[in-house]
């Protein structure tokens, strides 16, 4: 079996135009999302390796500085460091000497110095003596590498400010594992004398340090004094489709350390020597410089039909928002006119089918009303006078197995019709007009649910109509319907009247209610029920039930 949802079609230019507009809007939105976010491609993250080579020579402090001196290997991955400034303390020996004068090291007597104490800012261990640091200041004596390092500010301008003209070669190899594709940032025909320029030479892997800081919007001379950290970004955004191939690096630069809170980057290292007497001596360097962190990231992309179908399929559900939007528009319009819209009432009745407990409702059909009436139990007055709600009827063509009819003339059939049109016998005529009867042919009844007439207003009884005679009472029609079901039925049996009577009840319900769905709770009026019983009586005249 296949179940399909039921739709309500609204004939409205307004809502029809709104639907078209919303469908077009959703379709265009899906197209834009697919194109902008490239949902038609499968992607892979980049794996990379980086090698650097710094070149340049500088003259400062009466000495030559080459690559081996101003570049120091970093422990961090994909980083390199260039010295730009320094504080050098030469000829240090392990002995006693005055501490550098900071707040906790300044003293006035030996009592201010505690032997063996160490401060986190101190250069050594206190001996317990207070000695002259210079002509005006006294500090605690320490056992340390003497003379101790100066804690003053670094030289300005920077010692190696000429390193601005140094160059660095960046070698970057990348791999997209999903596509098994490898590429590097060095062109096959690389001109080793080129220098990177964002506009004129954007693919050259050789960079001037001054240009790097300029692209990062920093002043090299200022930053060289205390140093800093620069991010050297390499972005690989690769389209690996053969018809739109594009895979080249894009370089970017920015400063990572905070310029306002403790800016700069520095560390210390020492060079050790042996004196002729075997005593160890060292030169301490507190170096400032720029650390360059090479950050490689990127994405490789390729068209994939399955990925496209998967993403479009997931977004087709957006079309369901159109129906929701129109539902909201209909509700808002109904609320704006205080719920008095006749269109909304019809729409609501068509859209929703209320399912009630069949034991708590009854269905009634009056010959002078075009609809079926639903009445809920319990009854407080006669069924005829109880107010109910209208429900849609669904008439069906009255030519089926139970209403088999023939167009051929039949003398016996005509005689039967003549007999059916005769006045009711004493058993079927009402001895007095009931208050709830409008046709004058209903029988007295004590129970409320049996007090029902075929009409709502005064008028002719339905039992006198041609339709009732032909469709409900005609034994010719009923017998043929029985034979249609059971070709070998004995029409002369003693039980034939019971079968004809029950079939007549069904014929009436099918005729007046238009659907067998209501058969269980459809109520047959008193006049029709007694007319059928009078025509096809029971042998003992003992009838049960009324529906």
Care to describe what's here?
The strands form 4 sheets. Strands 1, 5, 6, 7, 8, 12, 13, 14 and 15 form a 9-stranded mixed β-sheet that branches. Helix content is 25%, strand content 26%. Helix 9 crosses helix 11 and helix 10 (475-485) packs across helix 11. The protein contains 12 helices and 18 strands. The chain has 4 domains: 13-40 and 304-351, no CATH class; 47-90 and 153-301, atp-gated p2x4 ion channel domain (atp-gated p2x4 ion channel fold); 100-147, no CATH class; 361-394 and 433-535, no CATH class.
Task: Record keyword descriptors for this entry.
12 helices, P2X7_purinoceptor, 4 domains, alpha+beta, 547 residues, P2X purinoceptor, atp-gated p2x4 ion channel fold, nine-stranded mixed sheet, 25% helix, 18 strands, transmembrane helix, ATP binding, ADP-ribosylation
């Amino acid at each position: 079996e296949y179940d399909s949802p039921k739709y309500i079609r609204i004939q409205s230019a307004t809502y029809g135009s709104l639907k078209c507009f919303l469908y077009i809007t959703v379709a265009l939105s899906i197209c834009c999302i697919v194109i902008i976010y490239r949902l038609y491609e499968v992607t892979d993250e980049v794996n990379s390796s980086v090698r650097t080579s710094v070149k340049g020579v500088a003259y400062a402090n009466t000495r030559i500085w080459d690559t081996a001196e101003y570049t120091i290997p970093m422990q961090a991955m994909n980083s390199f460091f260039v010295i730009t400034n320094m504080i050098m303390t030469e000829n240090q020996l392990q002995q006693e000497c005055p501490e550098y004068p900071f707040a906790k090291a300044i003293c006035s007597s030996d009592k201010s110095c505690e032997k063996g104490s160490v401060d986190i800012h101190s250069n050594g261990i206190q001996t317990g003596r207070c000695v002259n640091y210079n002509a005006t200041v006294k500090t605690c004596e320490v056992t340390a590498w003497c003379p101790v390092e100066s804690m003053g500010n670094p030289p300005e301008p920077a010692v190696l400010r000429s390193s601005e003209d140094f160059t660095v070669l960046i070698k970057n190899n990348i791999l997209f594992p999903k596509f098994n594709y490898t590429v590097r940032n060095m062109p096959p025909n690389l001109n080793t004398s080129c220098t990177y320029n964002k506009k004129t030479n954007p693919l050259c892997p050789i960079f001037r340090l001054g240009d790097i800081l300029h692209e990062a919007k920093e002043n090299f001379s200022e930053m060289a004094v205390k140093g800093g950290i620069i991010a050297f970004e390499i972005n690989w955004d690769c389209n690996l489709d053969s018809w739109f191939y594009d895979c080249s690096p894009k370089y970017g630069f920015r400063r990572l350390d905070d310029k306002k809170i403790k800016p700069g980057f520095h560390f210390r290292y020492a060079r050790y020597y042996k004196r002729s007497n075997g005593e160890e001596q060292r030169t301490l360097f507190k170096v400032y410089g720029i650390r360059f962190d090479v950050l490689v990231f990127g994405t490789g992309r390729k068209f994939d039909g399955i990925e496209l179908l998967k993403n479009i399929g997931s977004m087709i559900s957006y079309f369901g928002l159109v129906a929701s939007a129109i539902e909201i528009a209909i509700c808002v319009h109904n609320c704006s006119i205080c719920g008095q819209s006749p269109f909304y009432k019809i729409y609501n009745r068509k859209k929703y089918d209320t399912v009630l407990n069949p034991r708590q409702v009854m269905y009634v059909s009056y010959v002078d009303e075009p609809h079926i009436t639903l009445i809920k139990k319990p009854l407080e007055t006669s069924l005829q006078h109880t107010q109910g709600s209208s429900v849609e009827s669904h008439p069906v063509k009255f030519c089926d197995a139970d209403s088999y009819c023939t167009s051929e003339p039949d003398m016996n059939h005509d005689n039967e019709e003549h007999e059916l049109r005769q006045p009711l016998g004493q058993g079927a005529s009402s001895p007095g007009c009931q208050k709830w009867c409008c046709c004058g042919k209903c029988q007295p009844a004590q129970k409320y649910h049996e007090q029902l007439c075929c009409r709502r207003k005064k008028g002719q009884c339905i039992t006198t109509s041609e339709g009732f005679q032909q469709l409900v009472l005609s034994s010719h029609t009923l017998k043929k319907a029985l034979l249609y079901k059971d070709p070998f039925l004995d029409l002369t049996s003693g039980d034939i009247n019971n079968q004809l009577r029950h079939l007549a009840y069904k014929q009436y319900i099918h005729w007046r209610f238009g659907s067998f769905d209501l058969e269980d709770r459809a109520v047959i009026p008193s006049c029709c029920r007694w007319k059928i019983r009078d025509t096809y009586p029971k042998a003992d005249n003992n009838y049960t039930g009324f529906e």
